[in-house]
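Here we describe the complex-level prediction in full. Unlike the single-chain runs in Section 2.1, the two entities below were treated as one system.
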Amino acid sequence: MSAKKSYDNAFIDCFGVNAIQLNADLTYQSIEEWDSVGHMALVAQIEDVFGIMLEMDDIIDFSSYTIGIETLKKYGIEI
Amino acid sequence: MRLFEALVKHGGQPAILDANGASISHRDLVEISDAGVNGIGTRQLVFCLCSNSVSSIIGYVGLVRQDHVCVMLPSNIELSRLKPLVELFQPNYIFAPTEVLGAFELNVSQKVFDYGFAQISKEPVVMHPDLSLLMTTSGSTGSPMLVRISHSNSLSNAVSIIESLSLKSTDRALTTLPMNYTYGLSIINSQLQIGGSLVVSDATIMEREFWTLVRESGATYFGGVPYTYQMLQRLGLKKLAGSNLRMLTQAGGKLDEESVMRIHSECASLGIEFNVMYGQTEATARISVLKSDLVPKHPWSIGHAIPGGKLRVVNTESGIEVSQGVIGELEYSGPNVAMGYAASCADLSREADLGGTLRTGDLAVLEEDGFLRIVGRRNRFVKIFGNRVNLDDVEEMVTCTGFQAACTGIDDKITVHVIHSGDFDSALLQNSVAKFIGAHKNSIEIKKISKIPRSESGKVLYSVLMGGSNDN
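The structure predicted for the assembly as a whole is:
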């Protein structure tokens, strides 16, 4: 599976969103499912599929679909 | 004597600090909050749609001071849940963010900054003179059952909390918990009572603002539920270094022993106390505290009853205290035991029914060292991220959608055991259960089973489903 597909799937699995919703408007608390509990689930899934451990600052700043793409670059993952 | 009656004596001490550093003194809080509710009449029943915002606290303080009765609800409440409550309790006003009132198409008659009052009914509500607050107990499931809390319940619990946690007027608490949740409200009440300050923010632990406030607001403590501490552990407690924090508190469900030990030790290395507490809405909030210095030896214990309260382990049927080492039901007595429940506005005029003694529904045992350990629940309630959920309600909901099912659960996790041959959309069921209890779907697990284990008398053997032995 491509990195993009794995990344997108994490959002789709955790928040039950459609592929069409995966854009800059998908931010922390923009939908009911993306609350702090959902955030931890998302982080856990991303860490699992990419085999990384996110730093605390990166977990907190991972506040939108697009910001997350930038964050993962730091870990050598190109979405 | 009422809560907030003597606030003015704290004078110019800051009562509320917001995220931008603006502050309101105790003296000003009295003035602003009294003025904010002035004009709504006398002793009104008000639905308070709470948030961790300055206006929400101002409104609450004013309403309590002026002897109105508040039903504490979240500001993000869904209309489908609010409507039946309005029908059952017939409030005079809804106090909520003006944008929420706008979305409900209600007219704002009086504003308190970004909050406002909308009049719903002019009909006076007959209420017992001691009644001050109504708090919800369960999440969104089941019939609405509110807990009736008197002025003296609130005041006595605030005073006991101050004593048991040694709160001082120099303490600053960060609002990490919802204000409509007893634990969150108890922090607000005790801080204002002692003349301390509240650092008001609705930022969650997952947001930059929270961490900025931890470092820069001078906050000396905050509270968390088990899930808060799971997140903190994942983020790393060492990030709390360099703050003014002197204490963290945990309540709202059982945190596993290993986590308690780990958090305590990490906090200790930062010079921060970690106090583990136990409570119930029916006891206004707090029942007991395990002080930080006792945690290493008794991480499994709920600690000691708060000043003025008493804990006993009794036989569920007879009510007689059982011997040390024997499992029984935990019973609490104290001045903070609520008046009772209310299922509709007719109950608001009732006298106190509980008589100062509360059967907690928790099964407990007094260990040899004199410390109490909770070993389970008598009924089928679990806490899902702070919300009490009745497993029977979930089971009924799933059964109603056409499944044969049984539900088990521990704190923060419900398992729905479903009989189904062949394919079915377990994600769909998972989502509908999550919606029903108002929690994230990751807290629900759907398990396919071939049959529901039952006893000879036909009772579901939940312990077998949970992988335990057939002992009930």
